[in-house]
Amino acid sequence: MVRFTVLASGSKGNCTVVTGGKTRILVDAGLSCRELFRRMRLVDEDPATLDAIIITHEHSDHVAGLAVTARKLGIPVYFTEGTHRAWVRWLSPRKQMTYTQWLEQCRKQAAARMAEADAAEAEDCDPEDLDPSAEPASNEVAEPTARQAAPAKDPTALPSVQFFQAGKPLQIGDFHVSPFTIPHDAADPVGFVFQAEGVRMAVATDLGYIPPNVKAQLKSVDLLLLESNHDLEMLRDGPYPWSVKQRVLSRVGHLSNEAASTYLETEYDGQASYVILGHLSESNNLPELARIAAERALDGRASLLGNRLLLAAQHEPLSTICF
Ligand SMILES: [Zn+2]
Ligand SMILES: [Zn+2]
Predict the structure, then answer these.
(1) Strand, coil or helix: what is 67?
(2) Separation of alpha carbons 64 and 58, rounded Å
(3) Contact 109, 68 (CB under 8 A)
(4) pTM over 0.85
């Protein structure tokens, strides 16, 4: 059976679980490990059955719980090289080294990490582990303490890193995954189409607009998770500083209700059984505004059989969709 569960969607954390055949993939890890596991159990999913994590881009609402979750589960993480590099830099703000030097250091540390594997088993699933500011400053002169005397824990250590490229499909277990470039202000952001058992499910959030390559990917999907981030008027009149408003509105920002519904009305092929609106802003949008705009755009195409419209939420999982 093919399943799709949005555990969280929005600027405070994004996580989705896709299941097909014998494979289960976590798409983004923007919740703390503890909260992620709690939400999976809420929808009767066992975190221990996850096979891999795949990342859209390095913004914290997509990776905040990544390292702890991957280490806890001992599963591989799939990134583009650009996203991985940006994520490493984000977690290593004090380290002055090139990416090549970092990879070399990783190789040297690999043996040491193997020896520490038993200790890692006992690693607590603690969101505080992720706060880069909580890491002891390497250049800080301080009295040695028991904590500092222990081997420094590399915040970027992962059980396994797998690279993929936008535009080059890959196989993860029973899933055929098509990553595609999206216009967003991150190093190398992507959306995905996941295909298993003949079912195609698209994830397209965090994009300033919908360029032709994305429109091509969103054709003939059975499920479409599409960003409907903000209402233009609410954003313009809302509390964000001018610079942030400009960022959100830009071609590498976020998709408005208006842009999402223009796409649904004029370009969307109407093939999906489910259309899920996601990444709704809590400051500059209301679920009802997003829903009404999309319903109007679907214009009678929504039914029990096709184009069922759902809204993904920030603070609770959306019920699992089964095919
Ligand atoms: Zn985001
Ligand atoms: Zn983002």
Answers:
(1) helix
(2) 9
(3) no
(4) no
